[in-house]
Amino acid sequence: MSEIKPVSISYVDFKAGKDFTEEVTEAFGANGLGLIVVRDLPDFQKERQAALRAIRKFADLPEETKEKYTDSKSNYSVGWSHGKEKMRNGVPDTAKGSYYANPLDDVITDDQYLKENFPELYADNIWPGEDMPELEPAFKEMTHVQLGVGYMICELFDRYLHSKTNGLHPAGHFLEMLRRGTTCKGR
67: which of 57, 76, 92, 111 lies 20 to 30 Å off by Cα? Predict the structure, then answer.
């Protein structure tokens, strides 16, 4: 049995209009991993390094400072989370810290019902502006790169499914669903 490897495609080739039907079929077909690696992203390393430096600097702040940017009401799905999430055995996850935010909008809705009843989805972003102003722009720039890749993959997958289903899968379905979404999270 041969080794199954992830399919790799070039962002530059995608932008140039290359047809990736063969690669999508390989990735998502019967013997695929369901994974596509996108390479050649312009400025990816620059944005990634800026985001990693910013979150590292934030993680090194005093605990009482970081605690100002946690949100228990949202079950820690916005702002800083370290040791708040529980593993299956009930032990807090202290192996990593995460900063969660919606990369599209700082305030998704003014609807108080949604904010109170579904805070994991609708809580406003929390940014450490006074303690670490560089985190917000670094986070947003990196997550916009990630969203762009997500849009690209949805477009490829929509084309693939549209052709494989003889048009039953509507063209652009997943892409439009992702673009209409307002409650995504970046981490």
Answer: 111
Q: What is the DSSP string of 121-144?
A: HHPPP---TTT-TTHHHHHHHHHH
- Residue 5: count other Cβ atoms within 10 Å of its Cβ: 11
Q: Confirm if 74 and 102 have CB atoms less than 8 A apart.
A: no
- Assess whether pLDDT exceeds 70 at residue 1: no
Assign 95 a pLDDT band (cuts: 50, 70, 90).
confident
Cβ count within 10 A of residue 62: 8
Judge whether 88 and 172 are in contact, CB under 8 Å. Answer: no
Q: What is the pLDDT of residues 43-79, one digit of tens each?
A: 899 999 999 999 999 999 999 999 999 999 999 999 9
Between CA 92 and CA 96, with CA 185 as vertex, the angle to 5 degrees is 30
3-state secondary structure of 179: helix
**SS3 call for 108:** coil
Question: Could you read off the pLDDT of 28-39 as tens digits, one per residue?
Answer: 888 889 899 999
Please, which residues bridge with residue 101 across strands? 186
Phi, psi of 163 (to 5 degrees): -75, -40
